[in-house]
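Limitations
The structure tokens in this dataset are predictions for the assembled complex, not deposited experimental models. Users should treat interface geometry with appropriate caution, especially where small molecules or nucleic acid strands are included. An illustrative entry is reproduced here so readers can see what is and is not provided.
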Amino acid sequence: NAGVMQNPRHLVRRRGQEARLRCSPMKGHSHVYWYRQLPEEGLKFMVYLQKENIIDESGMPKERFSAEFPKEGPSILRIQQVVRGDSAAYFCASSPMGASNQPQHFGDGTRLSIL
Amino acid sequence: GQQVMQIPQYQHVQEGEDFTTYCNSSTTLSNIQWYKQRPGGHPVFLIQLVKSGEVKKQKRLTFQFGEAKKNSSLHITATQTTDVGTYFCTPRFGNEKLTFGTGTRLTIIP
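Predicted assembly:
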């Protein structure tokens, strides 16, 4: 049973370019969460999505960042006009339900580097 | 606001020694989850505590939830090199997003 799949594992972009990070949740999971982790720091919640809906985006920067989870296909975290400060590891997690007592299963992450 | 503090931030122990990390919240929690992240890896779910005063064991790991449901601890007995990593507590306040503590980074001296 495949776990949470994230791609690419590593992504290099120049300042001003766009970055697209993909996440396919575990089979049977319809709830997806995105987190950002800076080196030597904990994970910061960004956004929580259910199929075709954004449930909580309180951790998303107001500009340049967007997320979607379409009916078909993976969840996408999109960063427009990237800046050096966007360099981080971005983790996606999924759960079968959205209740607060559900453990979250994480993907291997995408390491984004901005030149 | 919902504040989470985890201590210590770093812990270096000799292999075979015990290790404990503590998680403290400023508000009462609905439950708490613990995750482990190996260097270069992703967080992996370890356990969830729900009841006041709950204690759960996983081999050499003992997890406790305080009576007031505001703090928790993870204790590892006789550490091994495989225990290396960062341990995060993630208090749940009744909503879906995880609020990660700063984590305790454990290094083992062979």
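Some entries come with short summary sentences. For this one: The beta strands of chain B are 4-7, 10-14, 19-25, 31-37, 43-49, 55-58, 61-65, 71-76, 85-92, 104-109.
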